[in-house]
């Protein structure tokens, strides 16, 4: 009663809280204490978003917090009600205060029973902690330290109880700040989202059509070679298109990387764990298809994934295919013009000759070059094929010589062999240099008609 009379001049809705049974503070004081942490909240939230982008706060999180709080409140209300009935039933009434005295006694009993309530709170918070362990803004001892700096003359017990009183409001405010920071960052990037989707669709469409054309080229080879070509295509271009899509989805989760090519299998799994169920199913199948042995299965999974992500793929028509074939041939030719590495010269020339003779693109690893050259036997003029086979022999000879040299290390007994190998290597290198220009000319100069075209 006395407390109410004292607070009455401060306004109709003024209220106060008693700490340590002796310290009375106004609601305004508590709000001012809460504001002390505002700047630190924003700093921590921004840091959290940069360093731990997987930790996102959604509306569901905030709803969950409010549910937990209401459960705690209901528990406390029921306990208070039981204690009140027990107190009234015992006839414990103090003179002078009447109902207020009983209310005061309830507070005292409540304090004695705090251990039980704390255990309930701890149990409840432990469940919440298991679900979202990173939502804590500050621990009680940290809050106490901050309060001591701003209220240096306050009793220690008061500081401790005030910090305990502030934990839940501060944590709830922190959740809202984190969400606000997240929403502002996503809205800031939202203006470029349409452009990003358009760029992604273009890239995905290009890679999709490349894969289709590469698959067509594979079918000219025997099963064992097709298997090697399929594995290489899945490991390279198919992985590239998968990483593009995963990185696009990761941008919504604040997990995107600057270069999608750096995304690993483990990173894809981590992104998958954060996706909605519908998208997760389609993207999981796409991820798993990279370890299979079928391009058709991969493309089927890719179709489902693009549909789940609302990405429109422009599948190529004849005109578009001709453009892709020309661009691919031009890119390989440009690379061939500048390279001086004999192994790469042989690789690029073989693939270009394959495209000239079949009008199909081929994406092949270096170890499949012998099979490509063997395939070209009846597809190009005999003199060209003979030159290609000769150059292939020299490239293999050089690679074997290099491997032997690296395998011998610093063994002094191998000096004579080293000298002999050095002579062989020099001779091979000279022959390769003499033939390199002729090999390049097979595809860079105006060509004779191939056997197939004749």
What does this structure look like?
The chain has 454 residues and is mainly alpha-helical. Strands 1-2 form a two-stranded antiparallel ribbon. Helix 4 runs antiparallel to helix 6 and helix 17 packs antiparallel against helix 18. The relative contact order is 0.07. The longest helix has 35 residues. The protein is built from 18 helices and two strands. It comes from Rattus norvegicus (Rat). GO terms for molecular function: UFM1 ligase activity.
What structural keywords apply?
454 residues, mainly alpha, two-stranded antiparallel ribbon, 2 strands
Q: What structural class do you assign from the helix and strand content? A: mainly alpha
Task: Give the % helix.
Answer: over 70%
- How many runs of DSSP E, i.e. beta strands? 2
Beta-strand fraction estimate: under 5%
- Low-pLDDT segments: 61-66, 90-133
Shape: elongated
Radius of gyration: 37 Å
Q: Provide mean pLDDT, rounded.
A: 77
What separation lies between the terminal Cα atoms? 110 Å
Report the major sheet: 2 strands, antiparallel
Number of helices, counting only DSSP H or I runs of 4 residues or more: 18
Q: If strands are numbered along the chain, what order do they take across the biggest sheet?
A: 1-2
Reading the helices and strands in chain order gives: HEEHHHHHHHHHHHHHHHHH
